[in-house]
Amino acid sequence: MIQNERQYKVTQTKLRELEQAAVNINPPDPNLHPRQVLSQKNSYNKLIDRLKQEIAEYEELKSGRIETLQIDDINDLPIALIKARIALGMTQKELAEKIGTQEQQIQRYEADRYGAISFDRLMKVAVALGMSLQGSMEIAIANHKLD
Amino acid sequence: MPPFNSLGYLPPGIYEISWEELMERFATNPQRQRIVTGLAAALRKLAIAGCTRVIIGGSFISAKEEPNDFDAYYDNFGLDFDLLDPLFVENIDSQQEVFCGELFPTIGYDQFLQTDKSGNPRGVVALDPRKLNS
């Protein structure tokens, strides 16, 4: 997932390089085994599609058209925090200033999908992003007895 | 093998490594061992087709405690393409599921693994899949 402008630019460059490489094998060298050509073609296409998707997702978030984020799994909460920041047009540096930390710390949190953040700091991030729940959250508790 | 740098990567470069060294350095917890099992399966399939060199990178080759997968590319010159497993040709979409990671042919992909998402250079490891025992 693209998290900032620098990654956005790097991803665009990588995409251009791959698209050029994909053009270069077309038409394929007749001396190459057809399965070699196919393996290369499929690999390029897979990577190109993935980068295009990442770019489209980032551009969509940045467009300002997104007002709510939906998650189906509590594990997706960190992703929602990152998306919310981008959708607000807030840079990692701006978020860092709001919660009183360094830009690099936010970059680490996001790269690590907020895996190592403390709960009180996580709440500060959510507040800084102006996040609120719409309605209430229904939390299921697995119903099994321990032996 | 040098220690990880401040970004949690090997310093830029390609480090030749044996399978035993890779296990010792990177298969350090159950999640990482799961990834290594998939990687071994992929390397055995590549060895059957005569592949002699695979470069491995991504978050698996970093200080990250629980990487999701590995990223790799393989030297595809001189391979016996009739023997190359469909997972590398027709069915590359299934690689993630079967191998816990992805392997692509070298060309156009080498620069990919040697920089991160932000363009920071990072080190990768190289090994010969034919030397994988058992």
From TrEMBL, chain A:
Coiled coil ranges: 1-64
CDD domains reported in the protein's UniProt record: HTH_XRE (cd00093)
GO MF annotation list: DNA binding
One Pfam family here: HTH_3
Domain spans labelled HTH cro/C1-type: 81-136
Keywords attached to this entry: Coiled coil
Protein name: XRE family transcriptional regulator
Organism for this UniProt entry: Merismopedia glauca CCAP 1448/3
From TrEMBL, chain B:
InterPro entries to which the protein is assigned, alphabetical: DUF6932
Name listed for the protein in its UniProt record: Uncharacterized protein
